[in-house]
Design brief:
The chain has about 270 residues and is mainly β. The chain has a single domain, classed as outer membrane lipoprotein receptor (LolB), chain A (Clam), CATH 2.50.20. The N and C termini lie far apart (about 60 Å). Strands 1, 2, 3, 4, 5, 6, 7, 8, 9, 10, 11, 12, 13 and 14 form a 14-stranded mixed sheet that branches. The radius of gyration is 21 Å and the shape is globular. The chain has 1 helix and 14 strands; from the N terminus they run H-E-E-E-E-E-E-E-E-E-E-E-E-E-E. A hairpin with a 2-residue loop joins strand 4 and strand 5.
Length: about 270
């Protein structure tokens, strides 16, 4: 009887695990389609980006800061069967004087959603967490962690050398559409050889009129070394169609915007 009960318990646990795995697979499939729409459509739009940079000393006192307003555009290089993400920023204001101390440059975090692109999903281990109800919607949450030796969509560039970033974090996913509403990440481990103790990001996405994908709204990045702390905030607004011809045109996006292009990531990923 005891053996029968044990087998019955193990069988029930096995069924529960299979059900959990099936739900994770469903969410990943939805998120993959959302990421593919993002990759196809995001380079077809431009927006306004406001960047606020603050540097703190060891006592968490601000010692330098700067604010910039830019016309922002994502460029995708799909040569060689992969894709590399580059950001284009054109200042919309007169350049102010340089800050007394150098500030941290953070780029590429707007496209953190590519973690869910079919190319990069195998680079991560995903675990389903309890849903979180926000404004009446039970958002699904997936916890993820980079697998050692697998390609990363992000690199950190320091003095001309690139360091692949191994992320872990949590994503909030709409249960029906698979749209990613928020991604919070942190480094899986410090980069001790360059003195980086921690690097964290919190990126939020939302529906935008005329777009078939959810676009970035805000991105907050924080970094720590042994004696300094940086916090950069990015705000994205005023999305409009971007077209390239003999003249450069920027127009309000239409209802059919989204494009039919495709992208295949490689291990270079997005510079950050």
């Amino acid at each position: 009887m005891r053996i029968f009960n044990t087998i019955g318990l193990l069988f029930a646990l096995s069924l529960a695990a299979q059900g959990a795995d099936a739900e994770v697979d469903r969410l990943l499939a939805l998120a993959a389609r959302a990421a593919e729409r993002f990759v196809a459509g995001f380079p077809a739009v431009a927006c306004t980006e406001k960047v606020t940079q603050v540097k703190f000393n060891e006592a968490r006192k601000a010692v330098a800061s700067g604010t910039g307003l830019y016309d922002y555009l994502i460029l995708l290089d799909t040569e060689g069967g992969g894709f590399t993400v580059e950001e284009s920023r054109l200042s919309r204001q007169n350049q102010s004087k340089e800050p007394a101390q150098p500030l941290l440059a953070t780029t590429g975090f707007a496209v953190m959603i590519v973690i869910f692109h079919p190319h990069f999903q195998p680079s991560y281990r995903f675990t389903r967490l309890e849903p979180e109800v926000i404004a009446g919607t039970a958002w699904e949450r997936l916890q993820f962690e980079h697998l050692s030796g697998e390609p990363s969509p992000s690199v950190l560039e320091v003095r001309g050398r690139q360091y692949p970033l191994t992320w872990r974090g949590t994503a909030w996913i709409h249960p029906e559409t698979g749209m990613v509403g928020r991604i919070r990440t942190e480094l899986s481990q410090p980069l001790e050889d360059i003195g980086l103790v921690s690097l964290r990001s919190d990126v939020e996405y939302g529906a935008t009129r005329g777009l078939v994908f959810w676009a970035p709204r805000t991105a907050v990045i924080e970094a720590d070394t042994l004696h300094q702390h940086w916090r950069n905030s990015h705000e994205f607004s005023d999305y409009r169609r971007f077209e390239v011809s003999s003249q450069q045109n920027v127009q309000a996006p239409g209802a059919a915007l989204g494009g039919s292009g495709s992208a295949k990531p490689d291990s270079k990923g997005a510079k950050q």
